[in-house]
Specification:
By secondary structure, the chain is mainly alpha-helical. The chain contains 16 helices and no strands.
Length: 411
């Protein structure tokens, strides 16, 4: 059924004129995550095939991640000016042809160029958030974003497994042919099911830019955005540190490591489901504080055990599940709040807050790589994760304080 009641069934040959189904938004969000990690098991084979250094091939991950931050800064304002639908359609077209280009590339430089263009798919995640905020109130948006966020938990779990199977059966290029097929479906789905939801686009870029200072001066916007950035930063710190922790402390096989890394994503999945169920009934700042407390307390208990010398799989990776759950509880409300500060700039707000998340993740990844050693891996990783979670809590408390001050002024 459609996200809004009473919408007609769509026809495969007729462009949409009504709001999208929830499935469409979940699919577009999940595709942007799947594109990041599905081909990771193929990196070594790609390096051999291209006769290129592994570090150069790995730029297809780091460079892609960097470009998703840049793209979000672009597509958000474009969607506020021209509408969500044309920008999403354009993003899916670029992704489709870039995927074909990756599959056909005969040298590493052509591949990296097309891989960079694939980052246009992030428009699906960035603008799906804006579409939700266009359609419903901020609390209802937090609830829907919670359900949509489950796609961001499922895709990292199944993507590398599926990509590994494809690589073994058909070679690394098969993953990018699959991306092309999925991209074609995403383009069709957007065309037939995603009608325009931005009913008040700005008339000119000059008019739009004139409204930006209102957004940038909003203390609540920066509170929401930094809460998201610090929350996701804990997840990136985990991804950067978990392989070294697993090798240094537990001598894990790669198969077991994959399952352990998935543990934080399981927590994120259930956190989003809880947010979807309860966010519409709870103030945004309250939901954010609950999420941050879940992360800080759960991880803090594990960190106490680790610092006291009890370093086990449960005290390390069991504790990090709470970071994932806390993020699932926090991010939908924080995202809805950031886009609600100036609803007419919801796309720009979604893009800017998304870019801050990517930038924060890149910084935390670098920090973890610089600080962690064989001897301090577990306590150092968990300490950085706890610190970022605590900073997210401070940002959530700041939003609550600003809300209270504004209420006093209004009365």
């Amino acid at each position: 059924m459609k996200c809004s009641p009473g919408s007609p069934e769509f026809d495969m040959f007729v462009p949409a004129a009504t709001p999208p189904r929830l499935f469409t938004l979940v699919f577009l969000t999940g595709l942007s995550v799947l594109t990041l990690n599905m081909f990771l098991p193929s990196l070594a084979n790609m390096a051999d095939d291209f006769d290129a250094d592994y570090g150069l091939v790995s730029l297809s991950v780091a460079g892609y991640l960097l470009m998703t931050g840049v793209i979000q800064l672009i597509v958000g304002p474009l969607s506020d000016r021209f509408g969500r639908r044309p920008v999403l359609l354009g993003g899916m077209v670029i992704f489709l042809f870039a995927s074909i280009g990756c599959a056909l590339s005969e040298n590493i430089w052509w591949f990296l160029g097309f891989r960079t263009l694939q980052s246009a798919v992030i428009s699906g995640a960035a603008l799906s958030r804006a579409v939700v905020r266009d359609m419903v109130s901020e609390k209802e948006a937090a609830s829907l974003l919670g359900y949509i966020g489950t796609a961001m938990a499922i895709a990292p779990m199944v993507g590398p497994l599926f990509g590994g199977i494809l690589d073994e059966a058909f070679g690394w290029r098969s993953s990018f042919w699959v991306f092309a097929g999925i991209g074609a479906f995403a383009l069709w789905l957007t065309f037939v099911d995603l009608g325009e939801t931005n009913k008040q686009p700005s008339h000119t870029f000059g008019e739009q830019f004139a409204a930006y200072p209102e957004l940038f001066r909003s203390r609540r916007f920066w509170g929401y955005s930094f809460c998201m950035a610090f929350s996701v930063g804990g997840f990136y710190a985990f991804l950067a540190g978990a392989p070294l922790v697993a090798a240094a402390q537990f001598n894990m096989s790669t198969g077991v490591l994959g399952a352990v890394i998935g543990s934080i994503t399981v927590g994120f999945f259930f956190g989003n489901l809880i947010a979807g169920r309860f966010a519409r009934h709870v103030a945004l700042s309250t939901m954010m504080i609950i999420g941050r407390l879940t992360a800080c307390i759960g991880l803090g208990v594990g960190l106490i055990f680790v610092l006291s010398g009890t370093i086990t799989i449960w005290t390390v990776f069991g504790a990090t599940i709470f970071v994932g759950m806390g993020n699932g509880l926090t991010i939908p409300s924080a995202s809805a709040g950031a886009m609600s500060v100036r609803p007419q700039l919801a796309g720009s707000a979604s893009g800017l807050s998304g870019a801050l998340m990517v930038a924060g993740g890149a910084l935390l990844t670098w920090l973890v790589g610089s600080v962690l050693t064989q001897s301090n891996a577990a306590p150092a990783m968990m300490s950085i994760m706890w610190l970022t979670s605590f900073c997210g809590l401070l940002a959530a408390l700041y939003v609550r304080w600003v809300d209270g001050r504004e209420s006093v002024v209004a009365t």
